[in-house]
Amino acid sequence: MRSKHLAGKMAEIEITFHNEVEIRVQAQIFAGHTLISTCVTGPGETGLLRAESAPYDIFFKNGATGWELARQLNSEAKTVTLQHQKGRYVMNGG
Fold first, then answer.
1. Cα separation, 70 vs 80, whole angstroms
2. Quick check: bond before 55 cis, omega within 30?
3. Element (H, E) at 73
4. Residues 35-58, mean pLDDT to the nearest whole number
5. Of 17, 21, 45, 65, which is least packed with CB atoms within 10 Å of its CB?
């Protein structure tokens, strides 16, 4: 995380999302029950999400149906990749 302070506030955390599946995916960042950031990416695209602080919950949904594909709760990942392996959607992040 960058530790820049702006007017006494810490700068936002940037989370990079790599969509490596063959469908459009909506990535969502939540803090508790509040939606903080969202982006939609097509196959092979990269998106950028922002959060004010960690940890946060990350959800990936099918861009057409809204069905949940994968999630990671209490995450502090700065880069997240969604892949389709052996019939399952798998998140990798660090």
1. 11
2. yes
3. strand 68-75
4. 96
5. 65
